[in-house]
Specification:
single chain, alpha+beta, 5-stranded mixed β-sheet, 4 helices, globular, binds tetrahydrodeoxyuridine
């Protein structure tokens, strides 16, 4: 049952996603698998560009796929990379817009997927930026 998908199954999906990484510049592969509260999984990989700053991280490509499919509730993300890496600051801020403080972040290397670490969002990004006047039209 997808709702009870275990960590290792999600990690395996992230590992498969990393195979699609477009990373000719860094040679650093990243795959992400994002689990929704209704058991769906959206995957992503890093997509680099010759204009380096246009590069998209795996976490954000996974999140954008989920958002485009209408999903808004997330419980866990698995991130597998050439070596174990936590999400970059930009990805933390973008994820934080949509996930609760207890959202789980699993990280591991592609070579040793079972040797994974678990973080929660509240620890990865305390004091996230929130736009207080969002939607009010006020700039006071
Ligand atoms: N990268 C990710 O996909 N996620 C992160 O959280 C950090 C970095 C990618 C971007 C780039 O393609 C490569 O890793 C090296 O920075």
């Amino acid at each position: 049952m997808w709702l009870h998908m275990d960590d290792l199954a999600l990690i395996e999906m992230a590992r498969n996603a990393a195979q699609q990484a477009h990373c000719p510049y860094s040679r650093f592969r990243v795959g992400a698998a994002l689990l929704t509260d209704d058991g769906r999984v959206f995957t992503g990989c890093n997509v680099e560009n010759a204009a380096y700053s246009l590069t998209l991280c795996a976490e954000r490509t996974a999140l954008c796929s989920a958002i485009a499919a209408g999903c808004r509730q997330f419980v866990t993300i698995a991130i597998l990379a050439s070596h174990t890496a936590t999400p970059c600051g930009a990805c933390r801020q973008v994820l934080a817009e949509f996930v609760p403080p207890e959202f789980r972040v699993l990280v591991a290397s592609l070579e040793r997927p079972a040797d994974y670490q678990v973080f929660i969002m509240a620890d990865l990004l305390p004091h996230q930026f929130v736009l207080q006047n969002n939607g009010t039209g006020s700039n006071a």
